[in-house]
Amino acid sequence: MKESFHQRHLLIALVYFCVAAGLGLLLRSFPIFSFDFNFKYVVHSHSHIALLGWVYVALTTLLHYCFMENTSNHTYIRIFWGTQGTLVGMLFTFPFQGYALFSIIFSTLFLIMSYAYTHYFWKNIDPKYKKSNGLTCVKAALIYMVVSSLGPWALGAVMSTLGAQSIWYRLSIYFYLHFQYNGWMLLALLGLFLFVQEQRGHNIPQRSFVRFFTAINLGIVLTFFLSTLWTEPSPWLYVLGGVGAIIQIGALLVFWTLAKNGIGNLSPSNLQNQLLRTVVVLVSVKVGLQLLTSIPYFARMATKYLDFTVGYLHLTFLGVVSFGLFFFLDYFGLLRLSRTVYQLYFVGFLLTETLIFLKGFAFWSKWEIFEGYAATLALCSSIIVLSLVLMVLQNRTAS
C-alpha cells in the first residue's frame, strides 16, 4: 500500500520528465521545421517542467517515502496535489506568454507550496531517523532549496527597477540554479545514499561525517562565485570560486572513501551497479569542469560559447541528477528500470552531450559544424524521449 501510494506520485514525476524531454525535442527541431512558436517561451516551459516537475516531485516523494513512514499522508496529499496544480498551470502558460502575469502567479504559488512541503517534512520526520547522517544532509538540502528561491523573488524587483538587461537579472537566475543543483539536488541525493547505507548497517563515523558535511557545505557556498565570473569581477572571486571547487572535490572524495565500503551491504543488482558507476563518472566530469571555469580563460570561454553552458547544465540535470534518481527508484522498487531502457537513455544522453560540446568547440576553434547537425541532434534527442516513454509505459502496465 505504502509503495503503491508513492509509485503513483513518482510515475507522475516521470510523465513530467517525458513532457520536458518532448519540449526539448521540439526546441531542437525548430531549426529544421521552423515551427510557429516563440522559442524563448518554450525554453522557459522546458526548464521549469524538468527542474520542478521531474526532479522536485521525484525527490520530495522519495524523501517522504524514506523519512515519514509512520505519519498521516493527508497533509502531504494536499501539498502534493496543490503542487501539481501549480506545475500544470506553468505548463499551460509559459509556452504561450513566457514570463507574464499568469505564469508568474503559478511560479509564485509553486514556491509557496515548496515552503509548505519543507515545513511539513521538518515537523513530521519519523523519530527513529533523528540521528541519521542522511537526514542531516537532506535537511541541509531543503534549506538550500529555500535559499535558492531568493533568486526568483529577486527577479521581480530587478525587472521592475533595473530591467532584464541588468547583470542582476542573470545573477538572480544563476543564484537560483546554483543552489538548486549544487545544494538542494546534490545534497538530497547524497543524503538518500547515506540513508540506504544506514538501513543496511553501514554507518560512517561521526567525526568523519562532520568533516565531510562541513567541507561540502563550504564548497557549495564558495562555488557560487563561479556563477559570477561572466561579469569579469575582482580576481578574488576567481580565487574564492576555485577554492570552493577544490573543497567540493575534496569533500566528494572523502564521501566516496567513507561510503564505498558500504556498497556491498546494499546488494545492488547489476543494473544498479551500472547506475552508480555512471553517477560517479558524471560527478567527476562535472566537478572537473567546474574547477576548470575558475581559470579566467575558461570562464570567458564558457560565457562566450553558450553551448558549453548548455552542455554543462544538461550533464548535471540529465546526467548526475537523473541517473541518481533512476538508481533510487529502481533500488527501492518503486519504479522499474529495464536494462534496455537504461541503455537507450544512456546512448541518447551521451550522443546529445557529445554533439552539444562539439558545437561549442567548433565555434571556439572557428570550424564549420557539419551539415545536418541540427537534424542529428534532434534524432539523438528523440532517443531520450523514446526511452522515457518506454519507462512510463512499463511502469504504467506494472501498476
UniProtKB/TrEMBL annotation:
Lineage: superkingdom: Bacteria
Keywords carried by this UniProt record: Membrane, Transmembrane, Transmembrane helix
Transmembrane feature ranges: 9-27, 47-68, 75-94, 100-122, 142-167, 173-196, 208-230, 236-258, 279-299, 311-332, 344-364, 370-393
Ranges in coiled-coil conformation: none
Full protein name: Cytochrome C oxidase subunit I
Species whose genome carries this gene: Flagellimonas olearia
